[in-house]
Amino acid sequence: MSMYEKSVRLLMPEMLDELGVPGGQVISREQAIQWFADRYPKIKQGTITAHLIRFSTNAPSRLHYNVRPDGEDLLFQIDGSHFRRYDPAKDPLPIHEVSQVTHEPVLVPDDEEYVGANEFAYETDLRNFLAKNLSILERGLPLYEEEEITGIEFPAGARRIDILALSPEKEYVVIELKVSRGYDRVVGQLLRHMALDRPESRRLVAESERHYRRARNYYGFKIGLLIPIVQLYEYELSVSSTKISI
C-alpha cells in the first residue's frame, strides 16, 4: 500500500525527469534518495534503492521486485550507486526472466573444503527456497514487503541483505546466507547490515557452526555475549526418489 497518493513506482519517472536522466545525465543513488527525502520523506531509503534496481535493465536483482516490462525499462546500472538512461540501441536487452541471467557458481577459497553434493550449488537456490519457506526458521516470520518491493536481496546502503523478514512483533529480521562455509567474514558482513538499519532482531544461516565459532573468535571472544540477537541455523538438504510404473 502506498504512503502517498502516488506509489514509488509512479514517482520514479517523475524523479528521473527532474534530475535530467532522459538527457543522458548520470545520477547517483544518493541524488535519488535526496529527491525523495525532500518531497516524500516517509519513504524508506531501501525502498528507493530497490526501485532504482527495479528500473535498471541490466540488474539481475530486478527480478525479485515484480518488474513490469511496460514502462520500467528506464535505467542502466553503471555500478553499485550510479545509473544512466537505458539506451536500447547500444545496451543489452532488458532482463525480464531468469533465463537471461548468467549465474556464477559460489567460489570456495583454497583453504576450504570442496562443496559436497548435498549442499546447494548456488546461494541463490538456497535464498529462493528459504524466502518461500521462512517458517523453517521461525513460525510467523513473513517476508518483508513494501511498495511492491520484497525482502529478497533488499538494498542496505551499498550492500544487499539476502533476505529481510519481519518477526511477529514487526521487528526486522536480517537473514544472511552462506552455502559452503560460514568463514570469518560472515560475522562482519552481518554486523554491517545490523549497523545500517539497526533492527532489533537478527538471524544468520550458515552451513557450519564450527566456522561460525572461528569467525566469532576472530572478531572477539565475547561477541556472543555482546550480540546475543545473532542466531545461527544449519541447513541440511536431502533428496529421495520413488519408482513409478510407466
Could you give the topology of this structure?
Blueprint: H1 8-18, E1 27-28, H2 29-39, H3 45-54, H4 69-72, E2 75-79, E3 82-85, H5 123-132, E4 145-146, E5 149-150, E6 152-156, E7 159-166, E8 172-177, H6 185-197, E9 201-205, H7 209-219, H8 223-226, E10 232-233
Parallel strand pairs: 8-9, 9-10
Antiparallel strand pairs: 1-3, 2-3, 4-5, 6-7, 7-8
Task: Report on the architecture of this protein.
This protein has 246 residues and is α+β, with helices and mostly antiparallel strands. It has two domains: 8-97; 123-233. It is 30% helix and 17% strand. The protein has eight helices and ten strands. The strands form three sheets. It has a five-stranded mixed β-sheet with strand order 6-7-8-9-10, sandwiched between helices. The radius of gyration is 20 Å and the shape is globular. The model is unreliable at 103-121, 197-202 and 206-228 (pLDDT under 50).
Low-confidence stretches: 103-121, 197-202, 206-228
User: Based on the structure, what is the oligomeric state of the protein chains?
Assistant: single chain
Mean residue pLDDT: 75
What is the total domain count?
Answer: 2
Task: Please compute the radius of gyration using only Cα atoms.
Answer: 20 Å
**What string, H for helix and E for strand, traces the elements in order?**
HEHHHEEHEEEEEHEHHE
Number of DSSP-assigned strands: 10
Strand count, sense and barrel status of the largest sheet are: 5 strands, mixed
| Beta-strand content | 15-25%
Apparent shape: globular
Fraction of residues in helix: 25-40%
What spatial order of strands do you see in the largest sheet?
Answer: 6-7-8-9-10
